[in-house]
């Protein structure tokens, strides 16, 4: 079970210490800030699971902290609870209108505090697990159907992915496209480095095509294969990614076709950062590494762009594995991409 992190922002040292002590006794990790400025500095380095914040403080007050938090895309959905001596109905209303999730009045009742924190974190967990479960369910349905060895068996499952920004393409061993969902149709119709030519999936880069067809060949023979091929756009934008999982489920029988996931990283970049942070509780550094992995970058390229040692990138990668319950890079990318984003896209 992952330990949740609570940021407590309170200018009264004794009260802040007492709150931290109660939270730590309840098995939370606690970050402490004595004022709004300290809180914002901490938020540049850490992403808490929940914020407890006093309203009236010297310098930057609680409303300032809340405004700054809500303006950061990757922390817009972190639960925020005000701590205050302002107990009038209008004060509570103003706090709610400012975007606070809850409002606890001083003197603090610690049983109510702990119950409120637990309820808010549980609410977030339900949203996260529901989203991840729906995505994983659709993927498993495709793989389950692929064991039926017929394209017809795959047809219905493929379109389960229409509510995700993930293209699904079913190809035979020669690369002939048998089925596509709507997102794959949109991607391939752009003919911007990846398209269907005479019924065959092809990229404009010869080297990538070789890698793609070598991986497709392996997918018919192996169950544990999980490869990614990055196709650069002719227009110079973010690349397309094609994920190729192994799909031979028994030594006796070869599949008739295999499932490929096709991702337009331009589309994903619009919404993926804050979505990934919300779903997987990533730190800012982990989010940057995750987004670069989604872009198809290698670990050495990520290290160079972030100006850090490759061992640092590997450290973040291990954290990403732990938080997404994966242990391979291709699996990690698939999980990061397989989240429902239609509602976010419309917003």
From TrEMBL:
It holds the Pfam family GerE. Residues 275-340 form the HTH luxR-type domain. Keywords: DNA-binding, Phosphoprotein, Transcription, Transcription regulation, Two-component regulatory system. One of its GO terms (cellular component) is cytosol. Coiled coil: none annotated. One of its GO terms (biological process) is regulation of DNA-templated transcription. The keyword Ribonucleoprotein does not apply. One of its GO terms (molecular function) is transcription cis-regulatory region binding. Signal peptide: none annotated. InterPro entries: CheY-like_superfamily, Sig_transdc_resp-reg_C-effctor, Sig_transdc_resp-reg_receiver, Tscrpt_reg_LuxR_C, WalR-like, WH-like_DNA-bd_sf. SMART domains: HTH_LUXR (SM00421), REC (SM00448). Residues 5-121 form the Response regulatory domain. This is DNA-binding NarL/FixJ family response regulator. It comes from Microvirga flocculans.
